[in-house]
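Because discrete structure vocabularies remain unfamiliar, we turn briefly to a single example record, giving the amino acid sequence and backbone structure tokens:
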Amino acid sequence: MADESGGVRERLFWAALRTFAAKGYKGATVRDICQAAGGANLNAVQYYYGGKDKLYQAVLEVLFTEGDRQLRQRLGEGAATSAEDRLRLLLEVYCQTLFAHGEASDAFLRLLAMELANPSPFLGDMVERHSRPQTLAVLELMAELLGRDAPTPVLVACLSSVLGPALYQALLWPTWRRILPAHPPMTEHWSELAEHCCRFSLAGLAAVRLALAEGRL
């Protein structure tokens, strides 16, 4: 994930992320974004992005693709071959995207929560172009780990059980931080969480695979 250093275009992007995460798509104005970008000219959003709507879409594009981009890059480097290794890599990249980028990760999470609670006009396009193929790819991985005869509802339940715990911790981290103040910050703890989720998931998938073989599912 890129950082905030750079020219006006980059500053506008990160200012937009923070502003949209705080005020939502409808509540944020071009003036708000330009002020957050250090007093950028009001015409800069139109010049660099083509207006507020396209700037918001640019932010969503990163939100919906950053983890997948990193995963594809790591897979292309030969980082994982077996299905188990690919699951471990998936969870590592997933947790890194959720936690490792500090304020940016936090802003993306808040924006995602806003989109799920009050979808913008652009959510459907993002789901079709990005979430659908990403989800189908993970379901394919679940089928590799469970067997090709595993019913779709079982595959979907396993996908949710594999990815859900990390997202749960990410969304509830402000609460966890108050309840368990001695717990290490997730920005430092994400790799341990990824490894835990992998161990837990592989054990759970093995139990499901056995239940399928014995006809209990």
Q: What stands out?
A: The two ends are 41 Å apart (CA to CA). Residues 1-5 have pLDDT under 50 and may be disordered. DSSP finds nine helices and no strands in the chain. The domain at 60-213 is CATH 1.10.357.10 (Tetracycline Repressor; domain 2).
